[in-house]
Amino acid sequence: MANSPSGDSMAERIVRVISAFDAERPAMPVATLARRAGLPLSTAHRLAGELVSLALLQRTDSGELRLGLRLWELASRSSAALDLRQVAMPFMEDIQAVIRQHTQLSVLQEDEVLFIERLSSRGSVSNFAKVAGRLPLHISSSGMVLMAHSPRHVQEEFLDRHQSDPPPFPAADSLRRQWAEMRREGCATLPGVVDPDTTGIAVPVFGPQGSAVAALGVVVPRGKENTSATVPALMTAARGISRGLGTDSAEAGPRYGGGAGAGD
Amino acid sequence: MANSPSGDSMAERIVRVISAFDAERPAMPVATLARRAGLPLSTAHRLAGELVSLALLQRTDSGELRLGLRLWELASRSSAALDLRQVAMPFMEDIQAVIRQHTQLSVLQEDEVLFIERLSSRGSVSNFAKVAGRLPLHISSSGMVLMAHSPRHVQEEFLDRHQSDPPPFPAADSLRRQWAEMRREGCATLPGVVDPDTTGIAVPVFGPQGSAVAALGVVVPRGKENTSATVPALMTAARGISRGLGTDSAEAGPRYGGGAGAGD
């Protein structure tokens, strides 16, 4: 994103203001906002005032700025994320009732995994995934299983974009091998990658066009994966979500124990 | 909102474009968007193109426009709605496990109830509340219990704004009586108001400043309210949410069976 406001359209500036807020910095004074959005203070001041009057921003009790509830409402009420979530939610609750650990739903966005929903039990293991938060694709079981079920050319384009990423980014051949295995197994299991004490396990959710549109996953204590129970439970729930999205059962994905799966 | 675009700022136009999408019309061609946003077709066309390039809008497979996942992500990742939701979620799951019907969390917004979260069981009764959807305050147990626990001047300002609303909007004296009783009881029970077959039951959630910041409610089959079990369960969960928000237990609200409660 350009650091100079000159030449930016007003829409771009508004996006930069909204993008300045995240889970780590949900509220800030206007000077911080100007810096994070790369805008002159006077511009940030004027724009913030206008966005407050439109309720896209709001002021906290201490006078800082944060995103307005109205923005969340407008963005959420017809969101594709919430459509997917609504279909998935009862099945996620089933998984959570059975596995009693974090259950999460995610999609691919720009080489990262974007978490749409997460259910947690009190007493679950730690989990770095947040609702509306992201993780790099290659460290997330959800991201890996989604890429494993993507067309070969999408995988190769991903590898091209990251070919000069230094370690710990994995070598291309290692990723290709992992994807092939995940595709055969119909699931991804990543022990101790994000956190040494936990394992991520994820399966794909297939949409009506037969492509993997989302991942359903759990985060469980490492060494207690119990994959022979967890994976079939996840696959069962994922098929339920696929059906809810209008996908024919026969197209809804692999069976436990591997097998042919879709060809490349 | 003015119907003519002349004199509108760009920020206002963007809000009008985003506001044109809702749960009933999540996707539309640009001509419909122009009409719903009150913009000339050429303006809508240009603005939609720019918002697509910024990923605030996206095109569907059939070429219609809808809100982009990126907008949901930006609006959600630091949202006050999701902060509240995250604290409330484990307690909402407890309620749902016990009551097995719709469980919902809401806040007041401009004389309406805005639903932040809703958990449903398959087989629950029908429910008109949607996540990021609204209901008029006076027909919702959540809205009524929130207004019942608002300061007297907020109640009177609400009544002033609605004094010429025709029936079925209730008479001011009837609302004042209901609010007084709900405040005494610490809960609102509205049988058959939104739907003849269901009853809404809601209790307030108190924030650190001692004011009611949200409502926790359930929608249950009418005639099977079992309030002597439902209300204490809701109050217990609401106190847990209050504590999670940093509220001292002693300030966390009324006890079952009524009692003094806070004075006006």
Automatic annotation (TrEMBL), chains A, B:
Q: Which SMART domains match?
A: HTH_ICLR (SM00346)
List compositional bias (Gly residues) regions by residue number.
Answer: 255-264
Keywords in UniProt for this one? DNA-binding, Transcription, Transcription regulation
Organism lineage string? Bacteria, Bacillati, Actinomycetota, Actinomycetes, Micrococcales
Q: Which PANTHER family match?
A: HELIX-TURN-HELIX TRANSCRIPTIONAL REGULATOR, ICLR FAMILY (PTHR30136), HTH-TYPE TRANSCRIPTIONAL REPRESSOR ALLR (PTHR30136:SF24)
Gene3D superfamilies assigned: 3.30.450.40, Winged helix-like DNA-binding domain superfamily/Winged helix DNA-binding domain
Annotated region described as Disordered, given as residue ranges: 244-264
- Presence of the UniProt keyword Transmembrane helix in the record: no
Q: Which Pfam families is this protein grouped with?
A: HTH_IclR, IclR_C
* InterPro entries, per database record: GAF-like_dom_sf, HTH_MetabolicPath_Reg, Tscrpt_reg_IclR_C, Tscrpt_reg_IclR_N, WH-like_DNA-bd_sf, WH_DNA-bd_sf
Ranges where the HTH iclR-type domain occurs: 8-69
- The protein's name: IclR family transcriptional regulator
PROSITE patterns on file: HTH_ICLR, ICLR_ED
